[in-house]
Design goal:
Blueprint lengths: L13 H10 L1 H8 L5 H17 L1 H19 L3 H17 L1 H26 L6 H11 L1 H17 L5 H4 L17 H5 L4 H17 L4 H25 L30
């Protein structure tokens, strides 16, 4: 008596991964848990560079606004800075695509390291490769944030306030000057895209690293808060008036051009 095997279920294509990361992350992480992270990482880097150069004029406008905001924070002549900014902005903006790639690589590696270290403390076993895969797919939210910030800057146009107008969280509605200078870096972790990215860290930790839901939540929240720590320390001690930032912890473009001037107020 002969039997026929049931046809194997076709494996999802890589392009389906980049849709599922937004709509079906549990299925995505279960499907790719043991796969190579390289295709997703290089796709993210290439798409990030394409998005950056597609909005190049907008990114140049945001860079100029960031330089003026930093000049105002230092009490220098903002008009003179704006007049001299053209050449500097042009050079910096054309090299920005490289910075987008480096930004993604650095923040993904940092997130992966934090997920592993926090996981060790709460008895979640997992490798750096697995954590890097989780952080890479979660960084597609940062890519979306990059595009959203660029579109938002295009809508606002010249004269935008980088801190307020490029925010997708509480900073958009708060009086920046009235806040303690160490608070804005922490509030940035409560932006829509930062929260979304942290949720993906938690889902990935639960599915790929086999953590309980409570352990996954601890790892994701801890990683997100630790991402804010350098900015909080910098602002509290008056360092780094013009640190680059991204709403979701990684990425570039208009989002990365927003200055951190929390360390120094206008005089």
């Amino acid at each position: 008596m002969s039997t026929t095997d049931a046809p194997a279920e076709p494996k999802a294509s890589r392009w389906e991964d980049y849709v599922d990361v937004f709509f079906s992350p549990v299925e995505l992480f279960a499907r790719r848990a043991n796969d190579s992270v390289k295709p997703a990482f290089w796709t993210l880097v290439v798409l990030g560079a394409i998005a950056y150069y597609a909005f190049l004029p907008i990114n140049q406008m945001v860079m100029r606004a960031a330089m003026v905001a930093a000049a105002q924070a230092r009490g220098t002549d903002a008009a003179a800075v704006e007049a001299a900014a053209g050449g500097i902005v042009r050079i910096m903006s054309y090299a920005g695509g490289i910075m987008v790639a480096l930004s993604f690589a650095f923040t993904i590696a940092a997130a992966a390291l934090l997920l592993v270290l926090i996981g060790r403390m709460i008895e979640v076993k997992g490798s750096f490769r697995q954590a890097f895969l989780i952080a890479t797919f979660a960084a597609f939210v940062a890519l979306l944030a990059q595009v959203a910030a660029s579109v938002n800057a295009m809508i606002v146009g010249e004269g935008l306030n980088p801190l307020r107008d490029l925010s997708f969280g509480p900073l958009r509605f708060l009086d920046y000057e009235a806040l303690p200078k160490a608070l804005p870096p922490l509030l940035r972790r409560f932006e829509i895209f930062a929260i979304w990215q942290a949720v993906l860290w938690g889902i990935g930790t639960h599915v790929v690293l086999k953590a309980t839901k409570a352990q996954a939540a601890i790892a994701a929240i801890g990683t997100s808060l630790l991402f804010a720590l350098p900015g909080v320390i910098s602002a509290a001690f008056g360092f780094g008036q013009q640190a680059a930032r991204c709403p979701a912890g990684a990425g570039g473009g208009a989002a990365a051009a927003r200055p951190d001037i929390s360390a120094e107020r206008p005089r």
